[in-house]
Amino acid sequence: MPGAGPAKAPRVSVLLTTHNGAALLAESLDSILAQRFDGFELVVVDDASTDATPALLAGYAARDPRLRVLRPDRSLGVVGARNHGFAACRGAYVAMLDHDDLSHPDRLATQAAYLDATPEVVLVGSEVLLLEAGRSRVTDHRAAASPLLLRWMLQVDNPLTWSSVMLRRAAVQKLSGFLRPEAEFADDFDLYHRLLAVGEVARLDAVLTTYRWHATNTSHHAGGLLFDRAVQVLAAAYAPWLGAEAMAAATLVVRHLSDRQPVPDAATLARLGGWLERLLAGFCARHAPAPAERAMVAEHAAGLWWRVVRSAMRAGQPLAIRQARAWPGLCRGQGKGQAPALTDRLGSFGIGLLRTHPAGRRLLALGAGMRH
Question: What three-state secondary structure class fits 129?
């Protein structure tokens, strides 16, 4: 029967939800159905689409029994559709894919092999290729050398892309549910943090997914809610270390570390630096990392701090350079080889100085226009 799927439970279920995604959906489906991996099913939830999506899915299901199409009788929304689909997944591992993203041919095989080999890891993502207006680039996240380093990264940013994630279904069954409606738009980030109580989370540095960035991405039209709910996730994580200051700290971390917005003034920069150092101290006290892993975490924190200082300098606060090494705790793991290059420091200072004067701002704008 078309769409019924194979009788034997697959090793991997791929979960894809869509709403009026016909324009890009076919390429996403093709990227899964062309995987160099046996033993998977593709579970697609069509969340009340009114475009050509139902007909497109019917055609695919008629040709390929690995595709199972679920069509609820009403729109469930992002979290509702994902929960509906997850409940139907039969694989021991469940891989995620949004309807506009692409899985590279070896994605399922690579991630399933990793989970087979590392039973302590309950979720694994990968590096992704960002595709926007015909141009591609990788993310600016640092390599995740170990699950402990990724656990730290999750305290200050979201280093995982939903369409790159594969997880153990049994691990989710230990939680109170898959995705929480109250965390919608940051529901993935919330899930990653909840899974940290069950096992380790990892990210492969191999590029296994292409994320297509366009005007209809959720992060475009739900930016405010996404921000607020990401803050809530981090505030809950920070409460044991920062107490009543957790919400204020989480707000600055999401705004300036995750969303990459320049810090507006020296006082805010000082507060953010103080909280970052306390977070680092609390994290290391809780997890007692070995010296090599502690150095990696400290080095990552130092790199974050330089990125914040650099952004503030280039936005028109050249004297923020004084803060580059203001907190020894953030720089302890940053040896000579990881220190910001002198050319970067001087260049950032010069750009910041130019931005303090109208003529300098006009010169920078002219240079930017010539580059484009």
Answer: strand
